[in-house]
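Contributing new records

If you add data, match the layout below exactly. Sequence lines come first and carry their own label; structure lines follow with theirs. Keep one chain per record. Anything else will be rejected by the validation script.
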Amino acid sequence: MGYDIYITRQDNWYDEDMSKQISLAEWTNYITRDTEMRLDNFAEAVLPGGEKIRLEKEGLAVWLSYPGNNTEGNYAWFYYSDGNISVKNPDGAIMKKMLQIATVLKAKLQGDDGETYDLSEINKVSRMMHSLYPKFKKPWWKFW
């Protein structure tokens, strides 16, 4: 399955308060100003057997400066949906980039379970995850 972290303005990422949602126009405008980001509107990966998997979604962007890019087929994909931007199974570096984006968009970071993250929380989680799972990082396309 995986665990998502959201950039959101809503009280809870799953709320449907249209007045607090990040618009697709705001998100794409942010991407055009951030030279580390690229709007692709799709993500693609080659599976171990050589088969390709592709996800197409307006607002899907990649963080070009992610230090883990192309490590075991992984990239830092940012998924726009329902007024939020999310990343599945982000590591500390991705969460720090998410926090940078959230600051510009006047938003916050929130996990699937409603917890919020600031820089101190990100650093704490990063240290814990690195000590427990030093090499663990699922590609975006592995849901299990």
